[in-house]
Amino acid sequence: MQAFLVSENETGFSGAWNHVSEPELLDGHVRIQLEYSSLNYKDALSYAGNKGVTRKFPHVPGIDAAGVVVSSQSDFFSKGDEVLVTGYDLGMNTFGGFADLVAVPENWIIKRPIGFSALDAMILGTAGLTAGLCVDKLLHNDIKPDQGSILVSGASGGVGSIACKLLSKLGFNITAVQRDNTKQGFLESLGVTDFISMDELLAGDGKPLLKPAFAAAIDVAGGKTLAAILKQIKPSGSVAACGLVDNLALDTTVLPFILRGINLLGVDSVEIPLSQKQAVWNKFAEDWKIDAQYQLIEREQLKDYLEALLKGEAKGRYVLKLK
Ligand SMILES: NC(=O)c1ccc[n+]([C@@H]2O[C@H](COP(=O)([O-])OP(=O)(O)OC[C@H]3O[C@@H](n4cnc5c(N)ncnc54)[C@H](OP(=O)(O)O)[C@@H]3O)[C@@H](O)[C@H]2O)c1
């Protein structure tokens, strides 16, 4: 089969489409012929040789995969089943979705909801699942549209763009953190109505609390971005934190928590039970159906787009066409 193999050499890491052996079909595993994969920040890190994501090279990245079962050693899946896989070890240390085929354990696999195509699944991918989990957590913490605007960092990226589309569909007012204003039109097309520049967000750097301006937030950045967000959430508000594109460190005080009752909600889309993933996928196939912004890319364009993700230049979602 063909796969995008990342190898380590004297000068660093490089990736190219290569012929590799088909994955072994172990007991309890399922082999899937892929129609689409998608690009996530984590794939870019794996492509760049980040050992926190992928320990062993050569490696095939791709944390998302959607297609049809071609052979099965599982009692739960049969040839022809329409499926999708996101997270767990796929694309990290298990060969991932940038390939014609993957072979994965049965307990990583979601049967796609009826009418939900492989393309629909990969337009959302891990980024969409994560955005859905963030919104779900905010809703479970009683955040409602009349309480004020929801602040979203990295709003133009994969997670952020789906979060904005979904929040907008659910009737929320959205404020995007802007690092510059080059993506303003794109952000408006996602339903963003208000903007705060990164400089403005970070302006009260030395202060433990700032004027409460937002009902809740979804943060993909961590670091100083998340620290600044926590200071500006209204009392009893919530922040769903899922990423680290700014920094994995978090330098804050306890004041937002003990004086304003702010909830910091951690979001993991990778290792959670399959049933929790299925619940969010079902919502996206029904009540949460959104018209997400995406770009379809061909195999030979993959490298360029992974490089763009590494530079923080993502705009919406990128779907890799495999079939
Ligand atoms: N917890 C989980 O299960 C989970 C799942 C998926 C992703 N993630 C994490 O979530 C983050 C976003 O993933 P993604 O796939 O959406 O990535 P992405 O498509 O690359 O988008 C990230 C966006 O963040 C903004 N950004 C870039 N550099 C920044 C910086 N230094 N400070 C603040 N903002 C910056 C940019 O948007 P603007 O230009 O609009 O600012 C960029 O488009 C990553 O850290 C990823 O690892 C976590």
From TrEMBL:
Domain Enoyl reductase (ER), residue spans: 12-320
Domain of life: Bacteria
Protein name as annotated: Probable oxidoreductase
NCBIfam families: oxido_YhdH
One protein family per Pfam: ADH_zinc_N
Organism: Bermanella marisrubri
Classification lineage: Bacteria, Pseudomonadati, Pseudomonadota, Gammaproteobacteria, Oceanospirillales
UniProt-recorded Gene Ontology molecular function terms: acryloyl-CoA reductase (NADPH) activity
